[in-house]
Amino acid sequence: MAAGWMEEWSSANYSSSSSSTGHGPPGHTSDEQDAFIATNTFVAAVVLILCMLAAHTVKKRRWYWLPESVTSMAIGAFAGWLIIVVHKRQAKELLFDPRIFFFVMLPPIIFSAGYNMKRKNFFRYFSAIMLFAIFGTMIAITIMAFSLFYLCKAFPAALGTLSLIDAWTFATLIANVDPVATLSILGAIDADRMLYSIVFGESMLNDSVSVVLFHTLTKLSTTELVVSAQSIFKLVGLFLGSACGSIAFGIGVGLVASFCFRHASLHLHPPIEAILVLLFSYIAYSVPEIIGLSGIMSLFFCGIMLAHYNWYNLSEEARATTRHGIEALSFLTETSVYLYLGLNFAFSFERVTDSLEWNGRFLAVTIALCFVSRAVGVFGLSAIYNWTGMGRKPLPFRMQIVLWFSGLRGSVAFALALNVPGDNTPVFVTTTLATVLFTTLFCGGLTETLVSRLGLKEVQLPPQEEPMLGMDLLAHLGGDGELMRWEDESRSLLARWKRFDKDWMKHYFGGKQTDRVVHAHDAASDPSASPISPALSLPSVRSPSDRRPQASPNDRRPQASSQTLHEERLD
């Protein structure tokens, strides 16, 4: 699919360049073309600055009822209407391009999510994340597809005609969950970490599941999609093969990159380090797209591998550059995406392009089915999760309500809608765009109120005046208020992986080193025998209120570095 996009893009650029002498509108002089490009650059910079200032104002004033993505879309819609009034012909050049989205805007967002995420919480609730991301998405797609197919068959005059493969394709893209607004609010109000981790993990893997299934369905013809056991097994087999191949490729690229950094003296040149990290990440994304796998899933797990191993191979300057640079680039592209969505929302009402068509009844049915299908998946799978005891602790009903409510649709769904083949694409595009706007504004705006009413904010402990030692420190790092049980863990699969990771993987690929694994009673009797690494030593766990200087100016213990800050963020 990626190869087809690039071939079409190259042919379009070739035909455009052959009809003009520069990079502007055909038929203009070189000076006019330069002025045209400079004007567009200036307008884009001004609009992005307004979006950044609006996001800063929302954060500063804590307007949780107004998600940052909504402000970007509102500014984009206002700018779109101004463009229509001033220069309507130019609006066609600003339509949302899925090729630019998938190959320019989306990779920094996915890579930042994997590189800067809290890995401990992600893998702590991994069973719940996988349950909702895979089986929850499958349930939502199935309910949505069959409901739309039979409703359109019963009411063709009101909803239009819809084939079975069109119903499945649209259900796959509209089931894509992208709760950017919800995550920003949950992080700002210190929501329960279990809730935040599940919402975050589901959104990341749900993107991959939806995209893989979408590409799989678009490859099938109408005659191939017959509801039977054979077709279901074929679809599941294609999905599992693509998912496993994508994960394996992303992990492989991360390990190759970590090995290169580990055994080369790249730390002597921090700018080269930072550039190579970005280049390896784009390899992890582009190659799977070329060979028909999922670049999203591959890039996400590549980011996890680079953060787990390669982070410790980088110099201090490169660590700060990659962490903050990737996060800034992700925020910029994320803001640009919602800005583009606002622009296209304005253009859709002014007939800038003939490829858009509104159907209010189909839109209302789609939004209702989004809530119904997600409710069945969340509450049904939560009951199974609690009954089987898959996790450390059960998933309370109030948390299930927030999980159901956080099913926002985002830019990935809109980009996929632009690539749907067939006669229903105009309706699919407008319906997806309106669903994104509605869920982001309604669900995202009410998230803080819902979380507060349900009592799902993280409990704030009183500041601690003295640094934690011995058993207190181990209890803090153990999570959920319980001590690490190394005696029992030593016989578990997790402990075996940790030993293999420490003795072999970190030796060849890099990573945080610990001297030895000790038992809890040893740590209680000898605080110096704590298995905590120097980066998580006492200066990193001191209370922010304790600003007293160190005991002696000759004390040469390392202060909190960028590595310390990164580990605190991830753990």
Write the topology of this structure.
Blueprint: H1 2-18, H2 30-61, H3 68-86, H4 98-115, H5 119-124, H6 126-154, H7 156-159, H8 164-174, H9 180-188, H10 193-219, H11 229-263, H12 270-290, H13 295-308, H14 316-349, H15 360-388, H16 397-405, H17 411-417, H18 425-453, H19 470-478, H20 486-489, H21 493-509, H22 520-525, H23 538-541, H24 562-570
Outline the structure in words:
There is one protein chain. The protein has two domains: 98-453, Na+/H+ antiporter like fold; 470-539 and 560-570, no CATH class. The longest helix has 35 residues, at 229-263. Helix content is 70%, strand content 0%. Helix 4 runs parallel beside helix 13 and helix 4 (98-115) runs antiparallel to helix 14 (316-349). The protein has helices at 2-18, 30-61, 68-86, 98-115, 119-124, 126-154, 156-159, 164-174, 180-188, 193-219, 229-263, 270-290, 295-308, 316-349, 360-388, 397-405, 411-417, 425-453, 470-478, 486-489, 493-509, 520-525, 538-541, 562-570. By secondary structure, the protein is mainly alpha-helical.
